[in-house]
Amino acid sequence: MTITLSIFIPFLAAIFIPLIYQRIKSRHIGWFVIIVPIALFVFLASYIPSIANGSTYIHTIRWVESVGIHFTTYLDGLSLIFGLLITGVGSLVILYSIYYLSERESLGRFYVYLLLFMGAMLGVVLSDNLMVLYVFWELTSISSFLLIAFWYHRKKSRYGAQKSMLITVSGGIAMLAGFIMLQSMTGSFSVREIVATIGQYTDEPLFIFAMLLVLLGAFTKSAQFPFHIWLPDAMEAPTPVSAYLHSATMVKAGIYLVARFTPIFGGETVWLYAVSGVGVFTLLLGSLNAVKQTDLKALLAYSTISQLGLVMSLFGLGSVALQQGYSTDSVIYTQATFAALFHLVNHSTFKGALFMVIGIVDHELGTRDIRRLGGLMAFMPVTFTIALIGSFSMAGLPPFNGFLSKEMFFEALLNARNLEVFTTNSIGTLVLVAAWIASVFTFVYSMIIVFQTFFGEFHQERVEKPINEASKGMLIAPSILATLVIVIFFFPNVVGNYLLRPAMIAIYPTFAGAERLTPHIKAWHGFNPALWMTIGVVVLGTILYRFMRYWRGIYTIAPLKWNLDTAFNAGLTWLENGSHFLTRLYMKGYLKDYLVYIFVFFIIAVGGSILFTGSYSFDFSDDSSIAINEFLIVLAMAGAGLAMIFVKSRMTAIILNGVLGYSIALLFVVFRAPDLALTQTIVETVTTALFLLCFYFLPEWKKERSGKKTKIFNGIIAISAGIVVTVLGLAVQGNKMFESISVYFEDSYRLAGGKNIVNTILGDFRAFDTMLEVVVLFIAGIGVFTLIKLKSKKEEQDIEDQ
Amino acid sequence: MKINDVILKTVTRIVVFIILTFGVELFLSGHNNPGGGFIGGLVLSSAFVLLYLVNDIETVRKGIPFDFKKIAAIGVFLAVGSGVGSVLFGENFLTQAFGHFDLPIFGVTELSTVVLFEAGVALTVVGVVVTIILTISEDV
Fold it and tell me: Would you kindly state where each structural domain of chain B is located, as residue ranges?
C-alpha cells in the first residue's frame, strides 16, 4: 500500500507547489520540493535489506475488472534500482536547480513539471499492469516535452520538445500495440503472469510482432539508432533537466523495459540480434558523433546515446542465458546482464556529475563552446576535479567505477564470441571490434571534456562573464555524485550484493538459486584479455587525441555528414503538407457542406443497416390511439418546421426553432417523462439565450444562390434523411433485436436508494459515463474561453519566433 | 448595448430568486423525483443568464464575484473525487453508498454519497454555461 502511495506523492506535491509558490516567490521554493524525493529515497532504501533477502512486494487496487486492468505495484530488485536512481538523482538535481535557476524564471512551473515527471517515472518502474505502465510511460514523454520547452520563447526549445515528443510517443503507441498483442495471446495484462505463462505462446505468429513493437517503444525512449536524433535536440532544456531526464532516468526507461521483458522475449534469437545489434551500432555511432561536437552539452548527449547503446547491447547478450536454459555453462552469459545493471548505476553517477559540471561552466561563463573555453583549471579547481573524475570514469580508467563496468563489458563480449548462435566466429569478432573502437572514441571525447575545457590558456574576451568558481551550493550535488564514483570503485560488491543481485533474480527468475549469478567484482584480474583491451583503448585513444587535428577532417566527408535529422525534418514537412492538402479537400469552410457530409453518412449508415437487417416491417398492433392534444402538438411542430424554410428574417427562424423545441418538451409532458421535459425546456431556454448573444457576430442573412443541380442534390438528401428518421421511428416499436435491459434498472430503489430511475442511471448505474460527460463539458467550456479570450491581438508582440 | 426596461428589471429581481430556489429544489429532490444535478445546474445557470441579460455584466459581477471557470473546475474535481473516494474505501471506482438516518428535525432521511457526485455535475454545468455565455458576450 505504501509503495502504491509513493507513486502518488510526487503528483500530490505537484498540486500544492503553485499554492506555495504564490506565497514564497523565491528560489527557496526548491527546499519544499526536495523533501519529496529525499523522503521517497529513504523510504525505498529501507526496502534494500529485505529485497536483498529475496522478498518482493506486491499491492493491487482492483480497477477495471472486465478488461483486467488493475493498479498493481510490484517492487522487486529491478524496480528498486530504478526507484533509487529516480529519487536519488532527483534529490540531487533539485538541490542543484535551487542554485542553478535564477529567481526570474517561473520556478513554480519548473518544479511542478519535475515532480510530475518523477511520479510518472516511479509509476513506470513500479507498475506491474501493462496498461498502467503505458499511461505512466506516455506521461514521462509529456513531462519531458514540457521540461524541454521550459524556455518556450526559444524556437530551438520548441523544436526539440516537439521532436522528442513525436518520436517517443510514436514509439509508445507501437509499444501499446505490442502490449495488446501480448494480452490477446496470454489473456493477462500483468507482467508477472505473462512471465509465468509465456512459454506456451512463443510459437504464436503474434509473438514476434509483439516483441518488435515493444522494442520499438524501448528504442525510441532510450534514443537508440535510428531514433537517437531527438536526444541532442532535447539538450535545449535547462541543464538540471538534461542531467535528470536525458541522462539518468527517462532515457533509461527503455532499458528498464528491455530488462523487464527479457524473461518474456529473451529466449528468442531475434531478441538477441535486435537488442545487441542496435545497441552496438548505437554505441559506435554515438561515440563517433560525440567527438566532432563543439558544444559540450551536445557532446554529452551523443555520449549518453553511446552509453545507452552499450547497456542495451549487454542486455541483449545476457538473454543468451535464457535461450540456452539453465546450466552451469549458460550462467556465464548472465554476466553480461550483471555488467549492464552495474554500468547503468555507474553511468547515472558519472554522467549526472558531468552534466552538472557543464551546467556550472555554462552558468558561470555564459558559454559551453569548447572552442571558446580553456584553462579553467586554475580558476575553478573544484569543478575541474569533478569533471576529471566523471570523464575518467566514463573513459574507463581506474580508480573510478566506469573502469569496473567497462572491463566487465569487454569480458562479456569475449565470452559471447564463443556463442553458437553467432554462426561463424566472425560476427562475434565484428561486434567485439566495433565495441572496442567505440571505447577508443569514448576515451577521446572524455579527454576532450577535461583537456580542452580546463587546460590550455584562458581567454577572458572569449567568454561572456568574468570567471569565478561556482557557489558552494551548486557544487554540493555534483560532488556527491563524484564521491560515489570513487566509493563504488572501492566497494563495488556492496552495490553488487544489495542492489544488483535481487535485480538479477528478477530478470532471471528461473536461475534464482544459481551461485554464479552475481560475480564478485574485482578491480584486478591479472593480465587477462579484457585488461589488454583497456590498455589498448588508452594507448590508441591517447594517440588519436594528440593528433586529432589531422584526422578530424574525416567528419566533413559526405557519407558522415548525411544525417537522419534532415530526413526527419523532410518527413515532417511532407506530412504537414500532405495532411493539409487532404484536409482542404473536404474542409471547404461552408456549414452547408458539412451538413451534407453528416446527413449522407447518416443516411448510408442508418438507412443501410435498416435495409441490411430487414427491420423495416412495421407493427402497429400494440400502439395506443393518438389523442387529440398529441395531434395538435405535432401539427404545430410540422407547421413551424415548414414555415422555417420560407421565413425572411433570422429572428423569426430562431423563434420557430424554439417552437419546435418547446413542443417536443410538451410531448414529453404528455407522455409522462417529466425529467426529459424539464431538461428539454431549460436547454431550449439557454440555447435561445446563446443564439441571441451570437446575433451580434453573425453576418447578414441572405439566401444562398446555388445551381439547380446542387439544389436537387440537397433536396434528395434532405428528403432521404427525413424518410430514414421516420422509418427508424416507426420500425423501432415493431422490431426487438435484443432483450430489453431496463428490467435491471427497475430495481433502482433497492440497488441505489433512488426512486427516480433516470437519475439513478445517471448517478449510480452509469456514473462513469456521466463523469466523462462532465469532463468533456468542462473541456469544451475551457476551449471556448481560450479560443475567444486568448486569441492574439494584432498590436500584441509575437513571442513565437525569437 | 444598454437596455433600461423597468418592468423586466423589477420582475427579474423576484423571478431570479424563484428560479434559484427551484433549481436547488430540483437538485435536492433528484434522487426520488424529477430533477438531479444536470437539470438543477441548468436551471441555476439560466437564472444567472437572466441576470446578465437584464443588468449589464459589470453590475452583476459586483454582486456575484465568482470566477465561473473555477466553479466548473471545482465541479469536475468533486465529480471525479467522489469516484476516487470509493476507491479509498476499497470499493470499485464511482461506487456510491446510501443509508437512512434519523435526523433531529427532518425525521428519517436518506443520505447518499451520490449527492456529492450530483453536486459536481451541477457545479460544472453552471460554471461552463455561464463561462461560455460570458466569454462570447464580452468579445465585442
Answer: 6-138
